[in-house]
Amino acid sequence: MRLNSPQINIITRACMKASRSLIRDFGEIENLQVSSKGPGDFVTSADKRTETIIIEELQKAHPDYGIITEESGIINKENENNRWIIDPIDGTTNFLNGVPQFAISIGYEEKKEIKCGVIFDPIKNEMFYAEKGGGAFLNNSRIRVSSKKKLKDCLIITGGPKHSSQNRDKIYSEYINVSKNILSPIRKFGSAALDISYVAAGRFDGYWQRELNYWDIAAGLVILREAGGLVDFFENDEKAPLKKNILASNSHIHNELSDLILKKNIE
Ligand code: 2AM
Ligand code: CA
Question: Is pTM beyond 0.70 here?
Fold first, then answer.
């Protein structure tokens, strides 16, 4: 580990501690899948257990910091200057189905700007992390986005839409537009936090997704930027600041990908 701000150390400690119980819970899923009850309720409690461990660890260090989480909502609402942004299990559907593609995601925000973030895949033992101005890392190695410049040759990942989405048709047509302009089929891995981390590590070249929550991608923002990538939000709803439509890329293909998604330059 090359970065050593107190926040990164606090976050990684919380991730490691929570991941021990998460790995145990993941081991139970296989048994539950064949039981008549199924793993549904168990996954909800695994989510809560993981989140409780993370919150306890973070609060030990800074009881006064604000916290935004998927399960518990907002804690210490009055402190908007120092906030942790937590997703205890990103990739819940994968987890529920025994698919080993999920992660813990924790970001730290100062005056509403993301300063550092950690995304930990406990099954592959891959920790992606970054601190503003310090570069991005995967375990002990520096990571960088890919250098591909032609969108056609790029490997692109996306997610969604949920069945309940009001924008399903729009999202499917974006998918078609992008598909028609690249050689390799689009990937869908089911964890927004890992999708962004993979762009940061140069495994994928671009990622977009509508209707995410801020905790899905908060840590990923700093990791991607510190790896040399570009990330922005599009068509945001100002009345719902925690909802995000995101486009993240290696920077070279950003405009081309953005034009396809926003239906510019399409004959
Ligand atoms: P979750 O696993 O924590 O629910 C799946 O495409 C990815 O998108 C997951 O990271 C999932 O997070 C996230 N996601 C969150 N809200 C979503 C939504 N409304 N539609 C689709 N995916 C969503
Ligand atoms: Ca999530």
Answer: yes
